Amino acid sequence: MIDPGKLNDRITLQKAGTIINPVSGWPEEGFVDLAIVWSQFRPAGGREFREGNVAIGEERATFTIQWRDDLDQADRLIHAGKIWNIRSVSRVGWKEALDLNATTTGQDAP
Q1: Which residues pair with 16 in a beta bridge?
Q2: Where in 1-110 does DSSP place strands (E)?
Q3: Cα 79 from Cα 100, distance rounded (Å)
């Protein structure tokens, strides 16, 4: 069983989908807030790579949350004002918890 005392960071889970652009009124692909949940944040290192002539740093981390069945790799989360892209969703135990392996390049959340 997961220790609830270790879930001490709040994150916002966002689901990929179609949203209505508030300016144009046209549908477009985007992200909708799904839930705000408690998580355990565990940094997992990082790397630096080049895109064209620009060096980009990437952080990796694992976020452990209570089990739910509505997340996949197309979704993302917001932690400490930064956007984290979910790379994998791994089940912990039998419907006990989820490990969300995610990466960020430091892009601030809107």
Answers
A1: 31
A2: 9-20, 27-51, 54-66, 76-79, 82-92, 97-104
A3: 12
CA distance 98 to 103: 16
pLDDT of residue 3: 82
Look up the pTM and report it: 0.85
pLDDT tens digit sequence for 10-47: 999 999 999 888 899 999 999 999 999 999 999 987 66
| AA identity, residue 99 | D
| Residue the block writes with tokens 């630096």 | 48
Q: How many CB atoms lie within 10 A of CB 66?
A: 15
Residue 34 · residue 14 · CB < 8 Å: yes
